[in-house]
Write a structure and sequence with these properties.
7-stranded mixed beta sheet, Rossmann fold, elongated, single chain, alpha/beta, 325 residues
Length: 325
């Protein structure tokens, strides 16, 4: 050992007491989340929830598309050794869900072998919102097999996913739209993507939607913010109806008579869930999914996987689940 070595060795030996060199690098690696957003401004909501979910650094990128995403993904997969890749993850967001789906596919195509990181797909909160809604429906009505369900405005991102989950759980699901061809296209898409059958219904106005829910046991409203889909008189006296859930938190609400803060209580003899009532669970799901991204480097969280996380949370939080039918 030369003179320099004799001088450095005691310092190195002392440092080993504080750094387990075979387990962590000298410079401790942070949990980094790349937030890839299709919008011009990345969602501040998603950024805040990412930090609350356990990310230590969030790198925001707006206007990300299939043409410019490659260098961002390559930067994520090539920078850390295999044992540390789980400390980097990707979140795909934005208001345009269809663009987000194309981006998700493009990201997955860039991965190869061990060169990949975990990804969560939740543009416009579509997956976490749908998962939270269905878990709360299950909390009130545990067995959905052969239950008749109508998803109002079911051709949107949340409505499609709610319909898919409910159909997978054995419910007989119908979706409404103002335009029949859109409802039919959505039904075909759900069959191709999720392997489920749903019935498309054209319902241009509230009266038509009232007719659509006449035999329903469960009604879910997933329309645009501030658009009323049903009046209270349309559902109040329906003998078969057991539960209503409204995902709209902006007045006028989607279902008149259901308030945003409703949490599985009773109105007019029906179980009711409002947007804020199941919104707390939606946030829990989002944060739990962020945390799971950093547990391994090959996790892909889409609707089905996010729903399983939601069910895990519900199983561990039974006292907060209210209602029953």
């Amino acid at each position: 050992m030369d003179k320099i070595g004799k001088y450095l060795f005691p310092i190195w030996a002392k440092a080993r007491k504080y750094l387990v060199l075979d387990k962590i690098p000298l410079r401790i690696m942070k949990r980094i989340l790349l937030q890839l957003d299709t919008d011009f401004h990345p969602s501040s909501f998603d950024t805040i929830v990412a930090y609350d979910g356990g990310a230590e650094v969030v790198l925001n990128y707006g206007q990300v598309n299939t043409g410019n995403v490659r260098p961002l993904v390559e930067g994520a997969i090539f920078t850390r050794p295999p044992s540390r890749k789980r400390l980097t993850a990707i979140f795909i967001g934005g208001r345009d869900v269809e663009r987000g789906e194309r981006l998700f596919m493009a990201v997955k195509r860039i991965f190869f072998g061990d060169f990949q990181v975990s990804v969560m797909f939740d543009p416009n909160g579509c997956n976490t919102t749908a998962a939270a809604a269905v878990v709360q429906i299950l909390a009130s009505i545990p067995d959905l097999r052969e239950r008749t369900v109508v998803v109002l405005a079911g051709t949107g991102p949340v409505g499609q996913r709610v319909a898919a989950l409910l159909a997978k759980l054995g419910a007989r699901v119908a979706i409404t739209s103002r335009f029949r061809d859109k409802a039919v296209r959505t039904a075909v898409r759900l069959r191709e993507r999720f392997g489920v059958e749903v019935t498309p219904i054209e319902a241009k106005e509230n009266e038509a939607r009232a007719e659509a829910i006449r035999e329903a046991e469960i009604v879910v409203a997933t329309g645009k913010a501030g658009v009323q889909l049903l009046e209270e008189r349309h559902w109040r006296d329906l003998p078969k109806l057991k539960l209503l859930l409204d995902a709209n938190a902006t007045p006028p609400y989607g279902i008149e008579g259901v308030e945003p803060g409703d949490r599985g209580g009773q109105r007019e003899g029906k179980i009711v869930w409002g947007a804020l009532g199941f919104g707390t669970l939606k946030l829990q799901i989002h944060k739990r999914c962020i945390a799971k991204l950093f547990e391994q480097n090959d996790l892909l969280l889409d609707l089905e996987e996010i729903f399983e996380v939601a069910r895990e949370i519900a199983e561990g939080d039974r006292p907060s689940m209210r209602g029953g039918a």
